[in-house]
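Lay summary. Proteins are chains of building blocks that fold into shapes, and those shapes determine what they do. In this project we predict the shape from the chain. Here is one chain we studied, written as its sequence of building blocks.
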Amino acid sequence: MQYWAPAIAVSLTTFIVVLNASLMNVAIPTMVDEFDTTVTMIQGAVALYSLVTAALVLPAGTLPSRHSIRRVLAVALLVYAGGTLVASLSWNTTILYLGWSLIQGSAAAVIFPLTFTVLIISYEDDDRAKAFGLLAGVSGVGSTIGPIIGGALTTYASWRWGFTLQLVGVGVVLFFTQYVSPNPLSETRRSLDKGGTVLSIVGATSLVTGFLLSGKYGWLVERRPFVVGELQFNPFGTSPAIWFLGVGLLGFAAFVQYERRLERAGKSPLVPLHVLTNRPFLAGVFTYNMRSIVSAGFFFIFPVYLQAVLGYTAFETGVALLPYSLTSVLFSTVTPNWRKYISPKTLIQIGIVCMGVALVLLYEQTGPSQTIVRMALPVALYGAGVGLILAQITNMTMSAVPTAYSAEASGVLNVSYSIGFSLGTAVIGSYFLGRFYGSVVDGVLRAEHETVSAEQRTDLVIALEDAAETATDATQQQFLTQLTPAQRQLLEGIFEAAMFDAQRATLLLLVLFVLLLLIASTFLPRQIPDADDGTDHLESSPDATREASETATED
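And here is the predicted shape, written in a compact code that computers can read:
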């Protein structure tokens, strides 16, 4: 137990954090009623949580390089527990934002990269692959059973119990934390790169904010006014998203230049250049990023489709996704040893193909006759694909970097994931909802034999989106009771047809992203790299580090 305790500790930690996000999403309607607020306000807490995590994950990832790994994990868990307690006791949205978005989000920024670091330093070769497979499987289970647990607690007790039960989980994890290495990654204590920290926060925050705003306000041209307080920000008729994205890209460009100058001056950068110029590592980061885009899109549209069209409850949605959980856990924990017989790169590409085939099968099945039993095969196949990828990609990516710099590499990988997840939610989510609302408007206009201009149609779609955002179940039912039976039947038919259309179109878009993921995977190395072979000299001096960095750049 002592040997595998570090893997158990970080896997359970990841399970709790992933479960927390799932619980929050399911509880949104209930929290709107309890706090007497709007859906947008509660969704703002979710967005702020993502923003805080993305902003802090890169500087937080360097903490194990300067402090005891065990102590960093224990303190992060205690802070997370404090945020959980505040969120469970919150009596208004301000306290909820404080506990869930700010405190828990900050702790999660430390926890996510730390999990990879702990596994890298605790295990080698096959055991490391098994540990990463376990981490991937547990994460998949958390995202799947979260809606089941959250739905049951919200329906039969209170959403607050979902937060309270996490405290028990933190207590269990703290027991296993005692077996995590007490040593920092580096024997020489490095000072915090304050300039790099500021630039990384500006870059990550701006990019994620831009992606979050793009779905509602448009990517380039103003889709609707963006107002903060009494100030409107739509310069030259543009969307605010393009400005945030521009600032984010400039921030990261400045970050790379600043890190280069710092390293040439013989100082300690936030992320050493030889990490940023490591080809196998960057190939893994890019593939991991593309996979997160696809996963974010799939887990955005699929539960919405199951509940809004097929009428499934949160519990039934979890049951429908159960084959995904089982196969993703099975393949992520069993297949790491397959690399002895099949190249890890080939296994990843087989997994990508499985995901694509599963999405095509779901596209073919989409319709009124779709059932949980019929969906079981493609959902299981999708889970198998994800399991094959995650069993290899994290280990492959992190192993490309010397162990001494695994904390910095883990931070980069997690920033990539945060950006990819927000991009996937923005692109896939906005396309799905835009297609749905557009089809609803078209269906109503056809039923009324009306024709409008393209600009008027866009205005109608935006008005329908705004109305849906602020409507609770009670207000929707109140609206429906005012309609005649014929009108209600017409609207139900239009909504159903629009959702089927949106689901099919978005599944095809996801297939396109899977093809891009397959292309990205061609740049991966065929075998798991071992960056620690002959790289111990990197720790000897800043000059040695700088020389290695410049050599990597020239190569």
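What the prediction tells us: Residues 48 and 101 are 6 Å apart (CA to CA).
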